Model the fold of this input.
Amino acid sequence: MINDILAEVEVSMNSSVDALKKEFIAMRTGRASTDLVSRLPIIYYGTPTALQELALLSVPEPQLISIRPYDSSAIKAIEKAVMESDLGLNPNNDGKIIRLQIPRLTEERRRDLSKKVGKRAEEARISVRNARRSGMSDLKSFEKEKLITEDDQKLGQKKIQELTGKYIKKLDDIAANKEKEIMEV
Done:
């Protein structure tokens, strides 16, 4: 029973870490990366479709992303989605290929992104703490219902606290790495 609660708590904490990683992948750092645009939703024949499913993405130069649509009729939709996204990039197209020039980040923009990293990491930490609180609450209810002993409850709480520490450290490491990447010139 305690192992079920621990497994549930760990799955929830792990999903917080995964969500943070996915969000940071799409965060601009001043270097070209296909991850910036790969999951960008494109309205293609009335259906939102990820850009990576509509085009070949590549990074021919450190500051350039190249998008070669499989269907040339999708160029306008891709351009529109890039312009409407919060990436702040202007697409250039020659009728076959869309090029996205990634400008170098200004010091002010680096600081803003760094603050966003910190804010988003804190939201993920809160999510991990909520999973901890939920697990602790489940343990207390099980003890009140006499499904587990008080010793089992205390042992379960200790294990949940250890999991929380482990996942908070993971989040802190991910955030520190992303901040370092952003602040690199």
Q: What stands out?
A: Residues 10 and 163 are 7 Å apart (CA to CA). The chain has two domains: 2-25+106-183, 34-101. Helices lie at 2-25, 51-54, 75-84, 107-144, 150-183. DSSP finds five helices and six strands in the chain.
